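Shift notes (night). Ran tRNA threonylcarbamoyladenosine biosynthesis protein TsaB while the centrifuge was going.
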Amino acid sequence: MSAKILALDTSTENCSVALMINDQIFTRSEVAPRDHTKKILPMVDEVLKEAGITLHDLDALAFGRGPGSFTGVRIGIGIAQGLSFGAELPMIGISTLAAMAQGCYRANQSEHVVAAIDARMSEIYWAQYTRQENGEWTTVMISNAEDSTSQGECVIPPQELAANLSASEGLWTQAGTGWAAYQEALSQLPLTMQPSEVLYPEAQDIAVLAQIEWRKGNTVDAEQASPTYLRDKVTWKKLPGRE
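Came back to this:
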C-alpha cells in the first residue's frame, strides 16, 4: 500500500501540484511563470478537496528541490515547509531533473533520458538517467578532464558538454527547455536522441519518485528541507557608472 503524498513544484515556468493516494493521482498543472505564489495554494486546496482529505491525513509532503529558477525553487520549498510545519508532515525533496526523466517514462515508457533545463547565463542544468527495474533512476556520470572529477547532475555550458560526455549506446529521450535554447551546441552530443513533449517537471512525477524515497525512509523534518541550486554563485555585468 502506497503512502498518501502531496507533491508540489514551482522550480520552472510550470506550477504543479499532485496528490497520490493508493496509486491514484489527483493533479493540477499550469505554465504560469510569474504567478506561482498565486496559483500554488489554490491548487493544493483543489486536489485535497477532490480527494476528500485534509493535510493532516497525509503521510508526507514532497517538493521539487531544484535545480531550476532560484526564485521558483525558493517559493516551492518555502510553501512546502509552511504546509509541512502546519500539519507536522515529514518532507521529501526530489530532483526536478529526475522528475522530468520520470515524466518521459510516464509519457512513452522511455528508460534512457537526457534532461536539460535552460539555466540562463549560457549554461544548462544537466543530467543523464537510466531507469532501473525497481523504478529508480541511475545518474550517468560525466567526467571533467580539467580536474579529473566526475558528476551526475550539474550546471555546465552546453558547448563543454560534448567534450566531457562519453558516447552511450541506445536511444536517449530528450526532456527540458535546454534543447530548444541551445539546439546547435547540444546537437553535437555523442548520443542517438529523440525529442519528447516533456519540457518541465510535474508534481505527479515527483509524487511517484517520492513513494520510492518514502519506502526507503528518506524523509526529513521541515526545518531540514533544503534546495539544490547546483550553481554556487551568480555573476552579472555591472551597469555603467556603478561599482
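Residues 145-149, 233-243 have pLDDT under 50 and may be disordered. The radius of gyration is 18 Å.
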